[in-house]
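Hey team,

Filing this mostly as a record. A colleague (T.K.) asked me to run one chain through the structure pipeline before their review meeting, and I want the input and output archived in the tracker in case anyone asks later how it was produced. No errors, nothing strange. Just documentation.

Input sequence:
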Amino acid sequence: MVRQKKAPMRMCTGCGEMKPKKELVRVVRGPQGPDGTAAISLDLTGKKPGRGAYLCRSLSCLKAARKARRLERAFSCRIPEEIYDQMEKELGADGG
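Output structure:
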């Protein structure tokens, strides 16, 4: 009898629901640049280095996380509006 591996679960930063990691998209804070700001982007492959937080593949969860500043709390840094706008475009293009 082969035991089935348990799927890793992660919490969506937007809605707070626990879901399988594969259903979520990772937001990553990369290493800090020379100007002291961290690069924050969507990690659609789940392989980028850096601190990660997870979101459902829906714009509503990203907007909820943006409104409550949950990603900023998770990464302990301020996130410029342009980065949120860029993530919204990427999520929209991804079919979310």
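Quick notes for T.K.: The two ends are 38 Å apart (CA to CA). Helices lie at 59-67, 70-75, 81-93.
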